[in-house]
Amino acid sequence: MAKHRRVDYRPNRHRTSQAQVDVAIDESSGLLIRRHGLELDIGLGPRRAKPVKEPWDELKGGRVDKTQTQTTTGTNTKLFRRPGNPLRRDQKLSCVRQKSCAVGSQRHSPRGALKERKTEVGFELPDLLTECRLGDVKAVGGPSEVQFLGHGDEGVEAPQVRQVTHLQIISILLNSLLHPHERIGQTESMGKNKPPAKYSAVGLLWRGLRKQSWPRVWREPEFKNTYDVVIIGGGVHGLATAYYLASNHGITNVAVIDKQYLGSGGSGRNTAIVRSNYLTPEGVAFYDRSLDLYHSMSNDLNLNVMFSERGHLTLAHTDSALRTMNWRAEVNKLQGINSSVITPAEIKKLAPSLDVSADTRYPILGALYHPPGGTIRHDAVVWGYARSADAYGIDLHQKTEVLDILVEGGSGPKGKGPGGKVTGVRTSKGDIHAPTVVNCTAGWASQLSNMTGVTLPITTHPLQAAVTEPVKTFLPTVVVSGSLHVYVSQTDRGELVFGASVDPVATYNMGGTLEFTEELAGHVLELMPGISKMRLLRQWAGLCDMTPDYSPVMGPTPVDGFFVDVGWGTYGFKAGPVSGEQMAACVANGATPELIKPFELSRFTEGTLVGEKGAAAVGH
Amino acid sequence: MLLVPCPHCGPMNAGDLTYNGESHRRPDPKTCTPKEWRTYLYLRENPSGWLLENWYCSSGCRKHFKIERHTLTGELRAPVLPGRKPGATQGDMK
Question: What CA–CA distance (Å, rounded) separates A595 from B21?
Answer without folding.
Answer: 31
